[in-house]
Specification:
Blueprint: H1 17-20, H2 30-48, H3 52-64, H4 73-85, H5 89-101, H6 109-121, H7 125-137, H8 145-157, H9 161-173, H10 182-194, H11 198-209, H12 217-229, H13 232-248, H14 264-283, H15 287-299, H16 304-316, H17 320-335, E1 342-345, E2 353-356, H18 357-365, H19 370-382, H20 391-404, H21 409-429, E3 435-436, E4 440-441, H22 444-479
Antiparallel strand pairs: 1-2, 3-4
Helix pairs in contact: 2-3, 3-4, 4-5, 5-6, 6-7, 7-8, 8-9, 9-10, 10-11, 11-12, 13-14, 14-15, 15-16, 16-17, 17-18, 18-19, 19-20, 19-21, 20-21
Length: 498
């Protein structure tokens, strides 16, 4: 039997988005099923009228199956043969795959090779990549590494991701090329990885780890982590968990549709399964799953300690919002006097370290997060959350937050800076009242307590004086300031009678 390595889904490049989408809802609702059935019926009628693209679409749907449509290779072969007779190269690729794997037809290596060559003659990239595999392994043809490299290069020039990966394999092993070139192989792997090829990303990380190019340990670790996050099992767990959370009504996202009313018992079962799946993905090292697991523990399970564990774990992986959420939780614990200023934390149980709200905010501030900078400024302005009382440091943090996010953080940071300047002004005035004749010596603590007690009234009085000053200035300009323009005297008109 003729084997091909074209494992990716083959779709016409000029097909509309609805036709090229092969993603079906994992557990669709009733309305989603109705929409998909209507779409299938539309393609069926269009294919019967002779629409070539609809014939190719129906052929793939009947090969793979869809909700409400059972796989039927025999009927798929009829649609694809009609499209191939009309000259569609994608239909030839499908027919070659069916002949090579014996789907609905008797396996025939010569027919499969003929269909691949017809499609490759029209520069169809998937057919070029498939022929490259045949020449590389000598399946149905004489083995020829140089011809395989030429075909892979032609497919890669048209943006075929799998061909770029295969070309990198040839450069890495010195097959069909002049010599082994690890640098050229790394370039091919990186180009394929940027387009979403998981194996290419893994190969590129291995070459960087071997020292082919100058790379830091952080870059190599991030490359391996992207490969782990892009795993099929992780994606399925996260998609299922997201669907369960949306259907339960705990959160809603744009475009999400709750199809039916669910009972409290069903909501509890959905959220329990969503939490379990999210935790499984979190243990795989996905920081988004770690952050979502913390949200579920905090909102659904009401377990703030477990939520803090996952937020801190996501913080170690660089999730900014998780750093801020962990800092907010530690600050709330301190304000409620449920926990000390810092907590001892360690995911593995060894090398426990103290973590406070200031540590979490400072970690996010180093990444340029305006919200963390504002929180640090507030904590240093009040001396809370494990931060020392330092007005000058608070002023620098607030100014940095205002400079980074001028759209959202500007107003809050400006008001906080205004309030900080008022407090600094009160502290400058307090030494003048330390000694008052006839009343004895007054301590600075008394002045500061007086200022903190009556500062709202002082602010209102100052604002009132400012308003009066602006009103007086406007009245003076309006009524007392002479006009700069010269008024011309209106000429008089005399009428004379005879």
């Amino acid at each position: 039997m003729l084997r091909t390595a074209t494992s990716e889904t083959i779709w016409p490049t000029d097909a509309p988005e609805a036709m090229t989408s092969t993603h079906w809802s994992m557990i669709p609702g009733a309305d989603a099923l109705d929409d998909e059935r209507e779409l299938i019926e539309y393609y069926r009628h269009a294919a019967e009228r002779g629409d070539v693209r609809a014939q190719v679409a129906m052929g793939q749907l009947l090969l793979q199956g869809a909700p409400g449509l059972a796989p039927d290779p025999n009927q798929a072969f009829q649609y694809l043969r009609r499209a191939a007779q009309a000259g569609d190269p994608h239909a030839h690729v499908y027919l070659a795959t069916m002949y090579s794997q014996g789907l609905g037809v008797t396996p025939n290596n010569e027919s499969a090779l003929w269909h691949y060559r017809v499609a490759a003659a029209r520069r169809e990239p998937t057919a070029l990549n498939a022929l490259g595999h045949l020449y590389l392994w000598g399946i149905g043809v004489e083995r020829n590494g140089h011809e395989a490299a030429r075909l892979f290069r032609a497919a890669a020039a048209q943006g075929h991701i799998e061909a770029k990966y295969n070309l990198g394999i040839l450069h890495q092993n010195g097959i069909g090329v002049e010599r082994r070139d690890q640098h050229q192989a790394l370039i091919c792997f990186v180009e394929a990885a940027r387009a979403g090829h998981r194996r290419a990303a893994w190969k590129a990380a291995l070459l960087m780890q071997a020292g082919v190019t100058q790379s830091t340990c952080v870059d190599i670790a991030l490359s391996f982590r992207r490969v782990a996050e892009d795993g099929r099992a992780v994606r399925m767990f996260l998609e299922r968990a997201r669907w369960l959370v949306e259907q339960s009504g705990l959160v809603s996202s744009r475009g999400s549709r709750v199809r039916r009313r669910v009972s409290p018992e069903q909501v509890a079962a959905m959220l329990d399964e969503a939490l379990w799946r999210t935790v499984q993905a979190a243990w795989a090292g996905v920081e988004v799953a770690q952050y979502n697991a913390a949200l579920l523990y905090a909102s659904w399970m009401q377990d703030e300690q477990q939520a803090l564990q996952y937020w801190l774990l996501a913080s170690l992986n660089g999730h900014r919002q998780a750093m801020i959420e962990a800092g907010d939780l530690l600050y709330r614990w301190q304000e409620r006097e449920r926990w000390p200023v810092s907590v001892a934390w360690s995911w593995s149980g060894a090398d426990r370290q103290r973590v406070s709200a200031v540590d979490c905010y400072r970690q996010a501030a180093e990444l340029g997060t305006a919200e963390a900078l504002f929180n640090l400024g507030y904590l240093h302005m009040r001396g809370r959350g494990g931060a020392v009382f330092d007005p000058h440091l608070a002023q620098r943090y607030l100014e940095a937050a205002r400079a980074i996010d001028a759209k959202e953080a500007w107003l809050a940071a400006t008001l906080a800076l205004f309030w900080l300047r008022l407090e600094q002004m009160g502290q400058r005035l307090s030494p003048w009242y330390r000694w008052r004749p006839g009343f004895g010596r007054i301590r600075g603590e008394d002045v500061r307590s007086f200022w903190r007690s009556y500062r709202p009234r002082v602010v209102l009085v100052l604002l009132g004086f400012l308003g009066c000053a602006l009103a007086a200035k406007w009245w003076i300009r309006r009524h007392l300031q002479p006009s700069n323009t010269m008024q011309r005297e209106r000429p008089s008109i005399h009428l004379h009678r005879e």
